[in-house]
Amino acid sequence: MLLLLLACVPLYYLWRITRLHNPWPRLFLGGIAWIAGARVRITGEKTQGGAFLLSNHVSWLDIPVIAGASGSAFVAHSGLAEIGLLKWLCEMNDTVFIARHNRRSVHEQVASVRAALTDTGALTVFPEGTTSDGTGLLPFKSSLLSALDPPPPGIAIQPLLIDYVLDPASIAWVGEEHGLDNFLKLLARRKAIAVTVHFLDPLTPDETANRKTMATAARDRIITQMAQRR
Predict the structure, then answer these.
(1) In this predicted model, what pLDDT tens digit does every residue of 192-215 receive, in sequence order?
(2) Which domains does the chain have, with CATH numbers?
(3) Any residues with CB less than 8 A from the CB of 77 and at least 6 apart, and which?
(4) pLDDT, position 224
(5) Pairing between strand 122-125 and 193-199?
(6) Strand order in 96-98's β-sheet?
(7) Mean pLDDT across 105-121
């Protein structure tokens, strides 16, 4: 993993100087997923152009898997920005940090998310607001979709299901388990981790009427796909 980082970081900064499209965050995060044992299959396609991806959330592994599959940046809790190395890695991938409990900065955060939707090909949020055990879906927090109400012009709202095919509960980062413990547990696995990324149909104009309608429609799409996998 260290060798991958050392290889990608200089190239990342070189591409920034040239102002060309920077492929290295996607390659780096996809490489992290591979090193962690993820063997990714993709169904469907990410919408061409700007897209806001609404995904279920099971593990830290979701992030490198989705980034490798789509090149997406992410909306993340501001607590990650307090950890130096994680903040640096997140910023390399154009992460947008939000403070969920700071009501005074809501307008600034909405503006930041909308700007990121304009500047990047895709931005992913986890509307559950936390991780689940991967066998079901928690309620979606429509407040996390405030930046999409109304949707920015030209931006598709696309649900996504990340499915750890064989045993999602063994991958999940839930309960009192420390993040580092979950990270080391997955790295120590001898078996590969089969994971399918399902890009589902984008929401229709009627389904994006407001953030609550979006949350309900996206959750229904993901639940329907979950039912089909069984």
Answers:
(1) 999 999 999 999 999 999 999 999
(2) 2-229 (3.40.1130)
(3) 97, 98, 99, 100
(4) 95
(5) unpaired
(6) 38-43, 193-199, 156-164, 51-55, 122-125, 73-77, 96-98
(7) 64
